[in-house]
Amino acid sequence: MAIFGGLFSKDKKESLDKGLEKTKESFFTKLGKAVVGKSKVDEEVLDELEEVLITSDVGVNTTIKIIERIEERVARDKYMGVEELDRILREEIAGLLAENNTEDLKDFSIPEVVKRPYVIMVVGVNGVGKTTTIGKLSAQYKSKGLKVVLGAADTFRAAAVDQIKLWGERVGVPVVSKGMNTDPSAVAFDAVKQGVDEGADVVIIDTAGRLHTKVNLMNELSKIKRVMQKFIPEAPHEVLLVLDGSTGQNASIQAREFTKATEVSALAITKLDGTAKGGVVIGISDEFKIPVKYIGVGEKVEDLQVFNKMEFVDSFFKK
């Protein structure tokens, strides 16, 4: 479609199409079964559609919102054939994403108005692809000519510290680390200090992903913030929550818990290529009104993409 031309490179669009393939196939298989033998959108079709959306991990509240909007259109138009359902759904989902705080970024850039370094604190439970997202993000920033420093403040897991060091070596960016079982806030302090001293553009701090002790998590994240603010009063400029899209509604639960524990300002939703649960992006964006900034649609560094809602909807509904 010409309307989407120029926003994404051809390669990125192909990666996005491929990454959402399982979600799209599952969704339209279910939708096809829901409308088979039907000629118009009636109450029965809408009931079936509601089930399709919920089982596609769009979420109950967001599903109800979509159904109500379609009901209004059916009532207004008096008659709506099932062949129009794809177009109507596409329009309503695009409209829903447009109403939320998700802004389409052109590329991996940082706000010009912010004094360098731009500090990002990354949060999320273990196993969601948090450290991998940090590594890919670092590579994308570096490819734009930005100077990056990483802080290995997830000090409760040796694997997390080792993994971020490997990413640092692979990408060619410095990693501040004090090893396992050390004070995370001390790592954050040193990372921000190094970023300031070396004139870095971006400092990315990894943090521990533990939800079972929410009070401790909240205290830990607050402490990390306080020590960073000794160098940069506005730090962190961004709190990025990484969620695993393949876990469906469990990702929504994690988002709910982390938004209680800290002020999340942006989301990265990973592993969309290996799942049929990509609908969770729509539900999470709608429920939390926090910008979905990045999505992961594959293993390669470039498969971490800036989220563009129109491109997402286009790939989701592409036949």
From TrEMBL:
Reaction it catalyzes = GTP + H2O = GDP + phosphate + H(+)
CC terms in the record's Gene Ontology section: cytoplasm; plasma membrane
Tell me a GO biological process for this protein: SRP-dependent cotranslational protein targeting to membrane
Major localisation: membrane
- EC number of this enzyme: 3.6.5.4
Q: Which UniProt keywords apply?
A: Cell membrane, Cytoplasm, GTP-binding, Hydrolase, Membrane, Nucleotide-binding, Receptor
Please name the GO terms that the record assigns under molecular function.
Answer: GTP binding; GTPase activity; signal recognition particle binding
Q: How does it sit in the membrane?
A: Peripheral membrane protein
Pfam families from the xrefs? Answer: SRP54 (PF00448), SRP54_N (PF02881)
Family label: Belongs to the GTP-binding SRP family. FtsY subfamily.
**Quaternary organization:** Part of the signal recognition particle protein translocation system, which is composed of SRP and FtsY.
Q: What is this protein called?
A: Signal recognition particle receptor FtsY
Q: Which organism is it from?
A: Fulvivirga sediminis
